[in-house]
Design a protein that fits this description.
The protein is of the alpha/beta class. Helix content is 31%, strand content 20%. The structure holds zinc ion (2 copies).
Length: 432
């Protein structure tokens, strides 16, 4: 068996290929995260992807973040691509939106991507897929993208767990360890993300605690704008719940794109039945209003009762803010809650000018965020629960980090592999 991992020592942009003598699959085809030194992605062209995917039976995506699916539009039609059912709906809606961009060459690129995305195959949790002699079973995880999965890969008598991006402190994290214990157990190899190794100082709140803090802010501010990822369902739910539970008289607003995404989440996660047979109201977003100048009734309602509005850092939103901010009474200062990673604001190498421009529109800006990634405790728990027989391969991490620092038992420490090598004569590990 051969395992090849591209770009293991950076956050995002990973490509993992697992091959037996008879078949070969790829997990994730990620683009480098934007705004980074390695911004120029050498794989971002048809030729490079045709080379990487040659002879491949299938590509499986853990989730819809660009640093995991960003190169999918280059994949030749002959290679089938697989993603979660809801994830597919979200990316199709996202690329439909991108097709409206004014630049003609962007439009062509995104139209082609939309066509490819709409042809993707889907998979379901705990339902194995077979590619030659490789069996892949997806298991649901909590992450800042909904419908995210880790994969158990079984072939040639070996069991490999690829975690993708995951965390232990979201609403949907409670099944993480029970799922590993009940369905996965001990593995031979663990391929695991390590994003938080470089962010050990970050405060980690549970989504529930974050939602409570949002409620406190909403008690002080009537007019609340929230800047978070438009596809981070659990985060969107935290602000929705803070509003609906404590201030049901306040409308929830978004633009048409965000409203469509929330409607997808309501119709899927919001209707999902628990083992008790009940569906969760946590992810039912209910009526989302879109602001229109002519809707006098909505304008009066917003000014009188207050509101929560999901915003994005786009020119369109600046125009919208030009219209909304003047209708609010001067004595009530609106609040912008920034609910994303602080590095986009205060780190030179990852700074996002559009995000900063949005913040400059407000005098009151508060950051309220928690990570979408596994804390050191969560990483340790997964390592111990899967107790890998041969190797732990850390990926999706800053190159300066040391995975041994998560403090796992010495026997597991010895199994951390970060350089290319042959294990047990029949297991080739290659880092590119
Ligand atoms: Zn990622
Ligand atoms: Zn991700």
């Amino acid at each position: 068996m051969q395992i090849t991992i591209h770009r293991a020592t950076q956050i995002g942009g990973q490509i993992t290929r697992i091959s037996t003598a008879h078949a070969s699959i790829i997990i994730d085809l990620g683009h480098n995260l934007p705004n980074r030194a390695e911004d120029e992605d050498v794989y971002d062209n048809d030729r490079a992807i045709a080379r990487i995917t040659e002879g491949c039976s299938a590509i499986l995506y853990t989730h819809y973040h660009g640093d995991h699916i960003g190169l999918f539009h280059h994949v030749p039609d002959s290679v089938p691509q697989y993603i979660g059912e809801v994830a597919k709906q979200v990316i199709c809606r996202k690329y439909k939106q991108l097709c409206f961009l004014p630049n003609e060459s962007d439009q062509c690129k995104y139209q082609r991507a939309l066509k490819t995305a709409s042809r993707m195959h889907t998979f379901h949790e705990k339902q194995p897929l077979r590619f030659g002699d490789i069996l892949v079973t997806p298991y649901f995880v909590s992450h800042s993208a909904y419908d995210a999965y880790m994969f158990l890969i079984e072939a040639e008598g070996k069991r490999i767990l690829h975690t993708g991006d995951f965390r232990g402190h979201g609403y949907l994290s409670k099944w993480l360890l029970p799922t590993i214990q009940k369905y996965i157990g001990q593995v031979d190899l663990l391929i695991i993300e390590g994003t938080m190794l470089a962010r050990k100082d970050e405060t980690i709140l549970t989504e529930t605690a974050l939602s409570q803090k949002a409620t406190e802010l909403m008690k002080k501010h009537k007019y609340v704008f929230v800047h978070c990822s438009s596809t981070d369902m659990e985060r969107l739910a935290s602000f929705k719940n803070a509003t609906r539970n404590m201030f049901p008289q306040r409308p929830l607003l978004a633009d048409d794109y965000q409203k469509d995404i929330l409607d997808i989440f309501s119709a899927t996660a919001g209707e999902k039945r628990s083992s008790m047979g009940r569906s969760s109201s946590c992810f039912k977003f209910g009526t989302i209003y879109t602001y229109r100048d002519w809707n006098i009734k909505l304008k009066e309602w917003m000014a009188e009762n207050g509101f929560t509005m999901f915003v994005r850092a786009s020119d369109k939103f600046h125009i919208l803010l030009d219209r909304i901010l003047p209708i609010l009474p001067i004595e009530e200062k609106p609040l912008l809650i920034y609910s994303m990673w602080e590095g986009y604001i205060n780190r030179d190498d990852t700074r996002n000018e559009e995000y900063i421009k949005l913040q400059e529109r407000f005098t009151d800006v508060i950051q309220l965020h928690t990570s979408g990634h596994a804390t050191i405790d969560a990483l340790r728990n997964v390592c111990i629960s899967t107790n890998p027989r041969f190797a732990i391969l850390p990926i999706h991490r800053d190159k300066e980090t040391n995975f041994s620092s998560i403090d796992i038992p010495p026997l597991l420490q010895e199994r951390i592999v970060t350089t290319s090598r042959k294990l047990n004569n029949d297991l080739d590990i290659e880092f590119i």
